[in-house]
Write a structure and sequence with these properties.
This protein is α+β, with helices and mostly antiparallel strands. The chain contains 10 helices and 13 strands. About 50% of the residues lie in helices and about 15% in strands. Helix 4 (about 230-280) packs antiparallel against helix 5. The two termini are about 55 Å apart. It binds adenosine-5'-diphosphate (ADP). Adenosine-5'-diphosphate (ADP) binds near residues 407, 409 and 443.
Length: about 475
């Protein structure tokens, strides 16, 4: 069964509130009762001492305990009447045998008074039970000696029982109980309302997030959550928005990528299809020359598919390098030689300068050649006739190998420089298309360099003296000495 976070929090909160309410009411009630008992017991004690003094006075006047019933009744009754604060004692008169029964006292507790003469015989018992009997030692209560001129003439025994219901004391305790109960109920109700409001507010960002996450899960990457606070929820919300934005960008990029791939594949395919159809319709002869054109187109198509595959591997982190100790200088020279068919017709001079310190380097030679081919291929392509390309290999202070490939070509516009390593990016669309480039070369180079743990940068300055005059393009690679 699914229980929402709101109800879980509310449940936990309620349990806590009820436990605290119970603890608070129990401790308040018992401490009030304790304090009240203490207070009553002090009062009772003082009252009893005074009563024993009054009894001593009675005895000193009467010289016996005869008529003590009447005396005690009037004294207690008066006391009870005067002590308005502590309540009124109730004295019931038993008709028949003309004795008194004191069923209440001034402090609201049932009191029993027993007066014993100096021989141990009970001369007064408020419950009228043991008059005339010898007092037993286990009779409960506090004893107060009654003395006349230092002679003990009797003993007053005061014992208290249950609180009298309806007495001010009982009413007081009852009203305390009621107000505690009222405060507990009111507190719990207020806590429930406040808790509900608070938890609703707490969980609302989560609910929003949940809604948005479900929508994103279904592919709606435009979903964002509103950030209204500065707490952990806000951080989660920000991260979620960031993630949704990345997904949206990735989705847009994926769509562009698919469109670009389709577009790039279509060009050579259309050319091949056109040539084949023209041959079928005998518009073009089925000869060596046409087959050579077809071959070039299929080679281009193959290269494009290879590049796309390599790029996908690199971008998904699946590109595995096969490194070994190789001599980068030798590889550079061999690559330059292999490109002679491109440089010679344009009369481009290629200068190679290699730091003799660089003898061996941990590289994937196949990928390294690919990097050089792409960079040098571009340099040759975008350098006019009689231009120069220089290649410098150095070990820099950090210990890395630095490779600079500089040409005297047409340069790259400053606005294009930040995007030059993006896939399918061409600085001059029409120009690159004629030359057959799909805008993947530099993107592949960047990934291959980074797979080697290196970095690549580009600069393409313009002349200070002639406006718009390119000073050529320079690519700088830094490759660490891999293990
Ligand atoms: P392409 O296959 O189109 O050459 P690249 O990724 O290798 O794709 O290059 C991207 C774009 O960068 C090229 O279309 C070109 O406009 C520009 N470019 C790359 N190298 C050079 C260079 N040496 N000189 C001038 N422009 C360059």
């Amino acid at each position: 069964m699914r229980i929402s976070l709101f109800f879980k929090l509310m449940g936990a909160f309620l349990v806590l509130i009820l436990i605290s309410a119970l603890v608070i009411s129990f401790t308040t009630l018992s401490s009030t009762r304790h304090a009240f008992n203490q207070f009553s017991s002090n009062n009772r004690n003082q009252w009893s001492i005074r009563l024993s003094e009054d009894l001593a006075f009675f005895y000193s006047v009467s010289d016996s305990w005869e008529g003590v019933d009447e005396f005690l009744t009037s004294v207690i009754y008066n006391d009870a009447r005067q002590s308005g604060l502590m309540g009124r004692g109730r004295i019931d008169r038993a008709d028949k045998d003309h004795t008194f029964q004191i069923s209440g006292s001034m402090d609201g507790y049932n009191l029993r008074l027993v007066l014993v003469d100096n021989t141990g015989i009970v001369v007064f018992d408020s419950l009228n039970k043991i008059i005339g009997q010898t007092i037993s030692s286990d009779e409960p209560g506090t004893t107060y000696p009654v003395s006349v001129s230092n002679d003990q003439v009797g003993t007053l025994l005061v014992s208290s029982g249950e609180i009298i219901s309806g007495s001010p004391a009982a009413n007081f305790l009852e009203s305390v109980r009621r107000s505690i109960l009222f405060s507990v109920v009111a507190g719990v109700l207020i806590a429930i309302v406040m808790g509900a409001l608070l938890f609703n507010q707490f969980t609302s960002p989560l609910r929003q997030l949940q809604k948005a996450a479900i929508a994103v899960g279904k592919g709606d990457f435009r979903q964002r959550v509103k950030i209204q606070s500065r707490d952990e929820f806000a951080e989660v919300g920000l991260s979620f928005n960031q993630m949704a934005e990345n997904l949206e960008n990735a989705e847009v990029a994926r769509q562009h990528y698919m469109a670009d791939v389709a577009h790039e594949l279509r060009t050579p395919l259309t050319a091949i299809q056109g040539t084949v159809e023209a041959m079928q319709d005998q518009i073009l002869p089925l000869d060596e020359e046409q087959l050579a054109i077809l071959h070039t187109q299929t080679t281009l198509l193959n290269r494009l598919v290879d590049d796309l595959r390599l790029l996908t591997l690199a971008e998904t982190g699946q590109l595995k390098l096969i490194r070994s100790m190789v001599n980068p200088g030798v590889i550079v020279k061999q690559t330059v030689d292999s490109l002679k068919p491109m440089t010679t017709p344009k009369n481009i001079s290629v200068l190679v300068q290699i730091d003799p310190e660089i003898q061996e380097w941990q590289l994937d030679s196949h990928r390294f050649i690919q990097i050089l081919n792409n960079l040098l291929g571009n340099a040759i392509r975008y350098t006019p006739e009689n231009g120069t390309i220089s290649i410098l290999l150095n070990r820099v202070d950090s210990g890395d190998m630095e490779i600079k490939i500089k040409d005297t070509g047409i340069g790259i516009p400053q606005d294009d420089l930040p995007h030059i390593f993006d896939r399918f990016y061409r600085a001059d669309k029409s120009r690159a298309r004629i030359s057959g480039g799909a805008g993947l070369g530099l993107s592949i180079v960047k990934h291959l360099v980074e797979a080697h743990g290196g970095k690549i940068t580009v600069n393409s300055p313009v002349s200070e003296y002639i406006e718009g005059q390119s000073m050529g393009t320079e690519f700088v690679l830094r490759l660490p000495a891999g293990q």
